[in-house]
Amino acid sequence: MSTPAAGAVVGATANLFRKFKEADKTVEQEHKILSKALTEQDKQFLIIIDDIDRLGTDDALQIFRLIKSVGRLPNVIYLLAFDRILAEKVLAERFPSEGPSYLEKVIQGAFELPLPDPFDLRNSVLHMVDSIMGPPEETEHEHKRFWDLFHDITAALIKTPRDVHRLSNAIRVSWPAVCDDVNRADFLSIECLRLFLPTVHAAIRANKKMLFEISPYHGNEGETLVEYDEAFLVDVFNETFLKDLSGRDRTIAQQAILHLFPRTQNVWSRVTVKDMNTDSWQKNRRIASESHFPHYFTFSVNDETISAKELEEFLANAGDPKKIANAFKKSITQKRRRGGTKAALFLEELALHQEAISDDAVPAFLCGLFSVADDLNVEADAGQVFQVDGNIFRIHRLMNRLMRNRFDQAKRTELIKQACEHASLEWLESISNECRKEHSPNEEDQDHREQEPFITKDAAQQLTDLFLQHIRAAAEDLSLKKHRNMFWLLFRWRDVADAAEVKQWVDERLGEDDFVITLSEKFVSHIDPLTLISPNLDDNATIRDDNATIRGTLDIDRFQERVDELLDRDSMSADDRSKLKRFKGTFAKD
User: What's the whole-number average pLDDT of the chain?
Assistant: First the structure.
């Protein structure tokens, strides 16, 4: 007869005593009957009771009392497995004067089991990890990093076969839910902390801001940075993450945090590390990546990241321009809880994984992307100040990552010219402008002086000519009126052509009511690269300065007259009237 857990024995004991109480025979009579029956048996019985040290005080005492009372049964051997120190501690709570002596009255022979061999434990963990999580990462750096974390964290915390079993049970449940969206080494390490150093795991989860905003300096932008007191930072981090830990556990916990969150080197290693490879952390879905950090605690993927499955499906279509264009368009419709769309996330993730796009697929990928670039440039994904981190900027970054070091200038020129034949209007202006600036950089464009221009000078001019051709066509078919950044494009048109040409087109359009309403809305805007900020603005509204530059493109006096004319009409809709009034009110303030 074998009972794998002491809890089962406690329940069985209660039932046994209840039956004895309800029976006509006394306990002594039942004991004699049972003893006689056991004596007549030609075999012995081994009763194994495990995990006694995990019981509460009352339950543990009940087990020992049971063994003490029925231990004289013939042909019965009891094998008790427990941690002697823990068991004595439990007994001492009820019998302070006895402790070890109480066990000696119950246990006839005690044997200390040898400690498990560390090598065998490590092998057991590795076999378990391989069967559940698969082998370590294939890249040399990630492979080495897996072993570093395994030896310093996992192997260091595993002390018994039971620890291996606990870890196995944990990751069998948690790993499948996020297996494609977390880093294998980091996940195994953080799960070990959760099981064996739970206070450290809880501190990491609760103090994300400390781990991601560590800096040995403080100060406002533009001010001289002041160095923090190193001892103060060390004390704060020790109190937060290592509190109540000592000896080996404290060392393991500190090493684990240093491995998992390299920024903490600025505190505990007494060195200042300013250049962190955050792109690599993001690409490899490490816990040190702020967007992936939550996955290690919620066991699910939030809408602030692109899952591995989504990225894989996207990359599988890299060689099909129509599918790429449709995928990007779909991403604009996928809203994120904190604002913005998944288009921004896809552009950033693709920049990190650009090597997954084969050389042969690059032309089709660029054609698909360039064709919908204007659609991707949504306000929701723009920065709060100057919009310098909008999706147009992200496309430039992706293009640079994808091509700068992969192809020479001649090949880049060929690919860009080919893709720009399919480019949307605003993106064509942006890329032609950037390429042109690389061949005539000013002092502020120092980056352009330190590297070879992306495409040839002749090609840059050809892109400018192509933009001029396309914007004239858009002006002729009036699609320019409907462009969300029409006002911006008018100024870019003026920069590469005769201002009189632009002014003539605008003057012709001022006779059209819908154009006047649209222009009123665009004229007044939130802060962006063209905005001149006025100290007397209300509702974040700004107005573009009516200086000679604007007057060279727009007859402002006539424009104001048309606005007044439309406002006098009773037939204007409430929405259109609001746009016109906002322009008029803001313009009056300026």
Answer: 82
Task: Kindly give the pairing relationship between strand 45-50 and strand 2-3.
Answer: parallel
**Which residues, 6+ apart, have CB-to-CB distance to 221 below 8 Å?**
none
Instruction: Answer with the one of 296, 313, 335 that is the final residue of a domain.
Output: 296
Task: Provide the 8-state DSSP code for 341.
Answer: B
Residue 221 lies in a domain: yes
Residue 173 CB burial class (10 angstroms; 0-12, 13-18, ≥19): exposed
DSSP element (H, E) containing 168 = helix 161-178
Domain boundary (296, 311, 345) is at 296
| This prediction's pTM | 0.65
Q: What is the pLDDT of residue 24?
A: 58
Interval 129-143 mean pLDDT: 84
- Which element (helix H / strand E) includes 108? none
Go through 527-539 and write b for each residue having 16 or more CB atoms within 10 A of its CB, e for each that does not: bbeebeeeeebee
70: burial class by Cβ within 10 Å (0-12, 13-18, 19+)?
A: middle
Residue 60 is predicted with a pLDDT of 79
DSSP assignment of 28-60 equals HHHHHHHHHHHHT-SS-EEEEEE-GGGS-HHHH
| The total number of structural domains that make up the chain | 3
Give the percent of the chain with pLDDT over 70: 82
Same domain, 71 and 133: no
φ, ψ (nearest 5 deg) of residue 181: -125, 15
pLDDT above 60 (res 5): no
Q: Residue 6's pLDDT is what?
A: 52
309 within domain boundaries? no
